[in-house]
Amino acid sequence: MLILVYSNLICRMKKVLVIMAVGAFIASCGGKKEEKKEDGFKMNRTKKEVKVTATQEGVPVDMNNKGIGSIKSLKLDAEINKELAAAGKTLFESTCMVCHTTDTRLIGPAVNGILERRSPEWIMNMILNPDGMLKEDVIAKALFKEYNNALMTNQGLTEEQARSILEYFRTL
Q: Are the CB atoms for 150 and 73 separated by under 8 Å?
């Protein structure tokens, strides 16, 4: 009887820990900086350096996949728009770096070289419509599985903001 009570208590504790972990994950997405300072307590995240390649992801590379969303066609200029890219870098650092970095796998994939793995339309649709992409897009579903079922949060960005982030990705 004591063993049964003990195992029920452990099961409940596991559920509470899982709920707390999910809540912490959701609360952390979309933050402004990696470093937080609250009441004199400084928290630093350490990152494990893992260079990402298409073969490490285990996710198909399909440059013809445009994704699911409003972006059906996108023509990139030969020259990078430095002003737009600078705005995209600022936006990326304030909105996306909680889950993504340029060269290191984190909660989500590293973005360096993303234009060699995904079409510009796919990238824009993923930024603007992550929920719809996850429901219907094969690559988004594969990324979801590859990254431990971590959902990409819809940040509510405009098409112009998403385009600036894409332009920043071109500089990497």
A: no
**Cα distance between residue 117 and residue 172, in whole Å:** 13
Residues 6 or more apart whose CB falls under 8 angstroms from that of 68 comprise: 125, 129, 132, 133, 135, 136, 137, 140
> Residue 7 carries which side chain, given as an amino acid letter?
S
Output the pTM of the full model: 0.64
Measured CA distances, 1 to 4, 13, 16, 91, 101 (Å): 5, 19, 23, 57, 50
The SS3 of residue 37 is: strand
Rounded distance between C-alpha atoms, residue 75 and residue 120, angstroms: 8
Q: How far apart are CA 101 and CA 33, in angstroms?
A: 12
First to last CA, the chain: 61
The string of pLDDT tens digits covering residues 10-37 is: 656 666 555 666 555 565 555 444 444 4
